[in-house]
Amino acid sequence: MMKTSFINGVFQGQSGNVLRNINPSDTNDVIEEFARVGREEADLAISAAKASAVDWGQSNPQQRFDVLDFIGSEILSRKQELGELLSREEGKTLTEGVGEVTRAGYLFKFFAGEALRIPGQRLDSVRAGATVDITREPVGVIGIITPWNFPIAIPAWKIAPALCYGNSVVFKPAELVPSSAWALTEIISRSGLPDGVFNMLIGPGSEVGDAIIKNGSVDAISFTGSARTGASIAQQCAARMAKVQLEMGGKNPLIVLDDANLELAVDIAVQGSFYSTGQRCTASSRVIVTEGIYQDFAQLFAERTRALRVGHALDPKTQIGPVIDSKQLEQDLSYIRLGQDEGASLIAGGDLVNLKTPGYFLQPALFSDVDNSMRICQEEVFGPVVTLSRVTCYEAALAQAEDTQFGLSAGIVTSSLKHAEHYKRHASAGMVMVNMPTAGVDYHVPFGGTKASSFGPREQGSYAVDFYTKVKTAYQLPM
Ligand code: UN1
């Protein structure tokens, strides 16, 4: 049976427009079919969200805790099954899929707790006898638009705080990964939320996404995706003065200094660069190495890259799953050709891999002899394609790491406390990782970047309150 969107408490939305969810590890495997909806259904969902927003905005902390805790508990108790579904549709390995589902479960649990401690302040007025209450109120209707690379964790880290702080939600998942979004929606549909508070729409960005962005009843938009779409959303939100939060690209540097432990440095580089098939905005895509360790590092990193087992996401031996679809694969391959045309040396990988099942399999690619001004060092590939460059010293490494339009995550591998401390202060990225991969973040602390990577208040952790609430200042003289 064809699956549908969820509007005003009911799974609904028939259409002749069918979305087939294809497994990137085996393109003969059609996972499920969905009925795509359009602008009209999006407007219905937004009206339902608006109509329910006032009551839900006045719900008490216990109601919100119970809803979020129910969702989190069910996700955690089904993590194996949901992880398998996620890996089947997105292509990350089963370990990564189950890991992501676990993260989503904990995100709901975290915000269940946050619902019990929504912050506020009471101050004495500067005018005699009066007091001032500073409170956090729901924003209203939140439009949530998510990418394909984290089919459940990114929806979770937007939906959970939206509900926690008393907002209604209209959620549009990426069309490449509708199954995880639908499974999450099915759980939410049984969580005790009043009808209309949570809506999920399966349909194209050009209609459903566009309706969410343009509809004046949507008070705020949280988006993760490409810089181009993000810029357009920001402009449209500014024009109608809607609140906006954007998470976009990265070109994250990983510095390796001479004093680093070689094995640890290579592990961190392989993990951060290639796991999840490099399809993370936090992936390390520029590895910058000082000259004393460069030779040994380059040799071991290339060996390890060649040895990575690319395969079907659900095969337990697989280390690197397929690329998400043919379009992304074409983009990865065109950057690999571009790197060669620009004069970089492809020292490992970069070939298509043929397996028993037809899928988008690519051996991770490693370039050396790059110049940071090359396009492969400046533009986000969003695939398993990495550059390796040699610098003289820490200061040169830092300068090169900073030479980018992006500012999401920045890593360093070193045993020098002095350099680690300096880097934490002077890297302009929103997240800095010392002796850890640039990708793979905790669920209870803020996530986000600077420069072209992010715009608006931070996501996750207790900082999420800034986006998902508005502040009221109430003055009172005694009666
Ligand atoms: C992570 O690295 O754990 O789209 C999360 C992305 C990011 C999430 C990365 N928004 O890749």
In short:
The radius of gyration is 23 Å and the shape is globular. Helices cover 40% and strands 22% of the residues. It has 479 residues and is α/β, with parallel strands linked by helices.
General description of the model:
- With 479 residues, the protein is α/β, with parallel strands linked by helices.
- It folds into two domains: 5-248 and 453-476, Aldehyde Dehydrogenase, Chain A, domain 1, CATH 3.40.605.10; 252-434, Aldehyde Dehydrogenase, Chain A, domain 2.
- Helix content is 40%, strand content 22%.
- The protein has 15 helices and 22 strands.
- The strands form six sheets. It has a seven-stranded mixed sheet, sandwiched between helices.
- α9 links the parallel β12 and β13.
- The longest helix is centred in the first third of the chain and has 22 residues, at 94-115.
- The chain is globular.
- The N and C termini lie far apart (63 Å).
- The model has no long low-confidence stretch (mean pLDDT 98).
Separation, N- and C-terminal Cα atoms:
63 Å
What are the low-pLDDT stretches, counting only 5+ consecutive residues below 50? Answer: none
CATH class of the largest domain: Alpha Beta
**Total strand segments:** 22
Strand content: 15-25%
**Apparent shape:** globular
CATH superfamily of the largest domain: Aldehyde Dehydrogenase, Chain A, domain 1
Task: Work out the helix count.
Answer: 15
Instruction: Assign the CATH topology of the largest domain.
Output: Aldehyde Dehydrogenase, Chain A, domain 1
Give the class from helix and strand content and strand pairing.
alpha/beta
What is the average of the pLDDT values? 98
With strands numbered from the N-terminus, the spatial order across the biggest sheet is 14-15-16-13-12-18-19
Bound small molecules, by name, code or SMILES, are:
2-aminohexanedioic acid
CATH architecture of the largest domain: 3-Layer(aba) Sandwich
From the alpha carbons, calculate the radius of gyration and give it in angstroms.
23 Å
